[in-house]
Amino acid sequence: MDNHEVVEKLRAAVLELASRDPGSELSVARISAAAGITRDEYYRHASSPMQLLAEALSDELLTMYDETAEQYPPHIARAMRPRLSLTHIAKWAVVYGGPMRNELMAALRQTLAPSFRMINEEDLRAFPELMPAGMPVDDLAVEFVAAYISGGGMAAIEVWVNEPAPDVERGLAMLMAVSPLTKLNEETVQEYFRRES
């Protein structure tokens, strides 16, 4: 079995275990057994179970971004990311909002938050008019605002995912109300699909 196959088996196993029984502890032994690999193989390809779970979730979401980028013009694919993110989180709500939530969110801050920040930086550089009034549009200011939006977005999602059945449309509406980037993105997507139909 090659390295890629082992990693894929580990990620599939940790997602299955976390979603099937979110209250149970994720252990190296349980994940290894579910993946059909040895503990030694686990340790060669993964770190802690929670970090593995965060990487599996992050990879699935970033893969959705990549697949969308292959299907749509770049500005539309970028604009679709907030909706894709909420759709992904709603799909795995039992994991994101379950008993492991605090530990998982800490791990996601290491794996997913940097990607969100980079995306927000790209958007703010592309649309400098969305920077807060009176703020210069230099590298430090863009990085500062992107980090603020990313951190606040992750915190807001932690609240949203606590709903028994997180509603993507409601989550998106709330994000649009507080984030000019999300509002601009959703308006861009809606206009694109109106023109295409």
Sum up the structure in keywords.
single chain, 197 residues, mainly alpha, elongated
Radius of gyration: 18 Å
Q: How far apart are the first and last residues' alpha carbons, in Å?
A: 46 Å
* Major beta sheet summary: none
Could you name the ranges where pLDDT drops below 50 across 5 or more consecutive residues? none
Overall pLDDT score = 90
Report the portion of residues in β strands.
under 5%
Question: How many beta-strand segments?
Answer: 0
- The shape, in one word, is elongated
Task: Give the count of helical stretches.
Answer: 12
Q: In oligomeric terms, what are we looking at?
A: single chain
H-E order? HHHHHHHHHHHH
Helix content: over 70%
Secondary structure category: mainly alpha
Give a quick precis of the structure.
The protein has 197 residues and is mostly helical.
Task: Characterize the structure shown.
The protein is mainly alpha-helical. It has 12 helices and no strands. The chain has helices at residues 3-20, 28-35, 39-45, 49-71, 74-79, 81-91, 93-96, 101-111, 113-126, 139-160, 168-178, 180-196. α1 (3-20) crosses α4, α4 crosses α8 and α9 (113-126) packs across α10. The protein is elongated.
